[in-house]
Each structure stands twice: as C-alpha cells, then as structure tokens.
Amino acid sequence: SEDRTERRLVCLDLGSGKTLWERKLGLKSDKLHAKNSHASGTPVVTDSHVAVTFADDDRYLVAAFRLDGT
After folding, report:
1. Please, are residues 50 and 21 in contact by the beta-carbon 8 Å criterion?
2. What is the DSSP string of 41-57?
3. What secondary structure letter does DSSP report for 15?
C-alpha cells in the first residue's frame, strides 16, 4: 500500500500469469534499506502450503496458506 502498512502474497497461474488469489497482511509502516524492498523475501512452497515472512520495526510475521489461498 502507499502508506507501507500492507504486504501481499499473490498466487499467479503459471500458464496465463493471471492472479488466482491474493492475501493482504498488515504491518506497521517502516523504513526500507536502500538496496532492499518489501518483496525481497522468498516464499516457501511445499506440496500443500505456501509460507511467507515479513517484518516491521517491532515484529516478525510468518503466515502460511494452503495452495488454494485458504
């Protein structure tokens, strides 16, 4: 988001590139490192789940979703 309080996980269709689902996660606004972005973390994918990590100045957030987005 423009105020830097929202992080997103977006699932794309491999063939078409269309968005299948999107999840939004809220964090506090924070400063970015000059050589980094909020998209620097790599999601981890298993045969049944995808997990992401995000952080702000106060906490770390780990979130996991099933491959269908639930």
Report:
1. no
2. SPPEE-SSEEEEEEE-S
3. T
Instruction: Write a three-state SS string for 8-34.
Output: EEEEECCCCCCEEEEEEEECCCCCCCC
60: amino acid identity, one letter: Y
DSSP 32: -
Structure tokens at 42: 């790599």
> What's the gap between Cα 54 and its chain centre?
7
Q: What is the pLDDT of residues 33-60, one digit of tens each?
A: 677 766 667 899 999 999 998 877 788 8
pTM: 0.75
Report d(CA 59, CA 19) in Å as an integer: 29
* pLDDT given at position 50: 96
3 DSSP assignment: T
**Tokens 């770390």 sit at which residue?**
60
